[in-house]
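Sample entry (194 residues):
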Amino acid sequence: MSHPPSADQLTELLSDASGGNVEALNRCFPLVYDELRKLAHSRLRAESDGHTLNTTALVHEAYLRLVDQTRVQWQGRAHFFAIASRAMRRILINHAEMRRAAKRGGAAPHESFDELGISLDDNQLDDLLALDQALVRLKAFNERGADVVEYRFFGGLTYEEIAEVMGTSAVTVRRTWAVSKSWLHRELQGSAFA
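Predicted structure, serialized as tokens:
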């Protein structure tokens, strides 16, 4: 069983990667792989029953997007996982939107949920898109709240890690999470997320 990388070890590699060291970024992947996989699997499994996930493919696609982030100045482990949570959210939403478009007679998606090993029924697809739309609405008037939800829900970050990324206290993050979660619950009445 592998152990999560130390914050110092990962921070050093990410700092080197920010300086343009591609090898440092490549050395990060084995250090974060198990943790990314665990976070993706547990978060997506908790979304709703009936998912058939290939979290490996999701993690690989998210990591490829992270490697493509040439202008990111990595600030450490928590920052890395915060950006990873955004990448995972975008991947899932993009695939949900492509599937919906294909079902309505739109162009066939170049990549499908099936290729990622993700199986969502129509209700789950609608719920995932409803969550994304609710987060967009929340961000319009409470950007911090939307960020906290995204980091907790899609990234699995702890209150302390979110506080580090956002430059605030864990107490503020907890309060923001409670208020945002309550608002989302009202917005998503009737979905699997309510």
